[in-house]
Amino acid sequence: MSFLGHRRILVVTAVEPERQAVLRGLDLAGVTAENGADSTIVVEVGGVGTAAAAATTARVLALGRFDAVLSAGVGGGIGVPVGGAAIATASVAADLGADSPEGFLGLDELGFGSATVAADPGLLAALTAALPDAAVGPVLTVSTVTGTLAGTRDLLARHPDAVAEAMEGFGVATAAAQVGVAFGELRTISNAVGPRDRAAWRIGDALEGLSKAIACLAELTP
C-alpha cells in the first residue's frame, strides 16, 4: 500500500480540527491512519505557526522513516473560492525579512538564504492529478495573517502568483528539506485574503473541503 505514490507519508496539520478533517477524509475512502511504526499514513498536529510546525515535523521525522511530508489545513484564498483547494508549487516565507525605506526585503534580497522551498515534483504531480480543480501556485507562509487593504496590496504586489496564505507550510517544508524528504502543501479555503472580516470566515466549509480533498487523494491509493 502507498499514498500519493509514497510508501509512508506524514501529514502535518496546525490544529486538532484539521487533523480530524484529514481523518474523516481518509475514512470516506476506506483508508486508516495509524501512528504505528508500520503505518502508511501518520497524521500529526504540529501547532500554529512556522516554529511549532517545523519542530513537530522534525521530531516525528527523527523517530521514524518517512518518504514524504504533506502540510495540510485551511488557509486564506487568493482568487480561490471558499471551500476550494490550493496546491503549493512552493511554500514561501512571505514576511520573513526586513522593512526598509524602499519596502520589504526578503531573505533572498538580504543574502540570508532562500525564503522558498519548492514542492517535490512527484508529490506535486500526484496532488494535481487527484485534485484537477484545485488552484496551483505558491502558498505563502506568514506569522501575521493579512488583515488590511494596504497589507493585502503589498502582499499581492510581492507575490502576484500566490494562491493562498497560511502559517505553517514553510516550517514543515524546511524540516522535510533538512532530511531530504519529499514535501507538499495542500490548503482548503476558509476566507479570502484581504481586510479582516471574521464574520465572513467559513471554517466549517474549509474543513469539509479538506475532508473531501483528502478522500480524493486516498482514493488514488493503490
From TrEMBL:
Pfam families: PNP_UDP_1 (PF01048). This is Futalosine hydrolase. Gene3D superfamilies: Nucleoside phosphorylase domain. The gene is mqnB. One of its GO terms (biological process) is nucleoside metabolic process. Belongs to the PNP/UDP phosphorylase family. Futalosine hydrolase subfamily. GO terms for cellular component: cytosol. The keyword Hydrolase applies. HAMAP family: MqnB.
